[in-house]
């Protein structure tokens, strides 16, 4: 008699429920039941409302602020471990604290390494994430990391626009590798913005390396936070003769007055994933769902199939 492997169960932290529902729907299982008890001081306790003994458990949670999201995920991993789940895979579409991946000045933490340690200590047996701010964060883990690329969902959308004279742009030197990878698939030119920051989230000067005159430009980045870099880059490119400027950013953090900056900029469109729920709608923002990609890779992981075909770049 052949033993049928039980299907995995998918659960969600409270801020990622909508995305988790879409992933579960694409995967073909109902979203698992979990409740959160809240104490009057704000402390909370998650509880799985169904048996997970001996199963693979996926816990969907983007760890954007507040830090309650991360704490929720850690508590759920610990609860799953103590409920005898066999495999515990946090699915973290947006991995918070990833910008703190090294000591860039004295006496600062390496936050991404600390988060990796917390996840493993809680009981994670595998980690699944998308477009990390720095690839080397994978090396902070002792457990397997499935690092997915949003390019697999952005490229078909870009192709559907049928843009002539396409040029891919990186908003800074650090993103040039990503820009070159996109340009290889789209057979397009590349330009790079050179910026110097006065402080975190504050740009001093910006210059352009490359030609944009008469081109349709697509800026590519892993995240958009204040929107300052994108707005400034778009305005600079239009000034230099670009026909249109779009931006592709995986994670839409959009803090502070980012929406106003984007709406008042020369950007014709900002294309993002639903790794972080939008705070509000904007006619300049187009959301491409990452749920089908995660569901497919989760299915492959559950059934021990190779996922290398999912890594376009």
UniProtKB/TrEMBL annotation:
It catalyses: D-ribose 5-phosphate + ATP = 5-phospho-alpha-D-ribose 1-diphosphate + AMP + H(+). Pfam families: Pribosyl_synth, Pribosyltran_N. Gene3D superfamilies: 3.40.50.2020. The keyword ATP-binding applies. It is an enzyme of class 2 (transferase). GO terms for molecular function: ATP binding; kinase activity; magnesium ion binding; ribose phosphate diphosphokinase activity. Keywords: ATP-binding, Cytoplasm, Kinase, Magnesium, Metal-binding, Nucleotide biosynthesis, Nucleotide-binding, Transferase. Residues 9-123 form the Ribose-phosphate pyrophosphokinase N-terminal domain. This is ribose-phosphate diphosphokinase. It comes from Flavobacterium capsici.
